[in-house]
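S1.2 Input.
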Amino acid sequence: MKRVVSVSLGSTKRNHLVRLQLLGQDFEISRIGTDGDISKAISLLKELDGQVDAIGLGGIDVYLYAGAQRYVLQDGLRLLETVRLTPVVDGSGLKNTLERQAVEHLAQQGLIKTGDRVLMVSALDRFGMAEALVKSGCQLTLGDLMFALGIRLPIYSLDKLQAIAARLMPIISRLPFQYLYPTGHKQDKQAKANSNKYARYYQEANVVAGDYHFIRKYLPEQLNGQLILTNTTTRDDGEMLLDRGAGMLVTTTPELQGRTFGTNVMEAVFVALLNKTWAETTLEDYTTLLQQLNWQPKIVKLRRDLPEQGDLQVGS
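S1.3 Output.
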């Protein structure tokens, strides 16, 4: 049996373990949170190194992208370099393939349409998804400065984002990661003051896309039927979105026994299937495995008043 573990800076309340078979191979896939404690994450990574088939780094990025430019986050690199023997990934390779395909699938199904207004909470960690949304004719509001830095300055083009990133990322990449992203117990609760801070950007959008913890961070008390395009959601997350008035929840990674894992977990599964290191794995490898697995976005209808969408994978 192949064993894949995600070591996450996120909350231990979101831990999960599944056993299943993929392409004829048995897997045990688990996610272990460290409640934002980087030292604890480093200790766990050292313990797992050489003992499992692949490791994912969760709740943190190593690499962010703006077009062809790659930026390295120092805290993420510190975790990555802790592991010496086992292949280790952060999910960015799979984001660039799986999430592009997810947008294309939704466009083909008519769930994303030309002219749709999309609030993309952060495009630097999902640049492939952002590019696919632009290609589909969507109008993007990019929230990288708002959601990561708390600066009320929406960005309306990928070119502008790339120019801002070129100026700021050499500095931002050296900041402690918890200053940029909800880690640990911050993932378990939402400050009431946050629910109105950027409410207008959610409510003006047809689609809210990107990292779920960023989406949740400023999620307003009332939505009006938005499609939420994300992953790493649990049943409780779905209930929250239903209560707030979201129309559909679309997750780019498959649901495995009750929850969707992050791209870092599924990318770790891929390198374990391929028996390759992360550096050796190509976009063609990801694309081939995605075709073999035939993964499609999971689409859950949250509001009963929305029309049925043909033969979509719609839940209740």
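S1.4 Remarks. Residues 2-91+261-293 form one domain.
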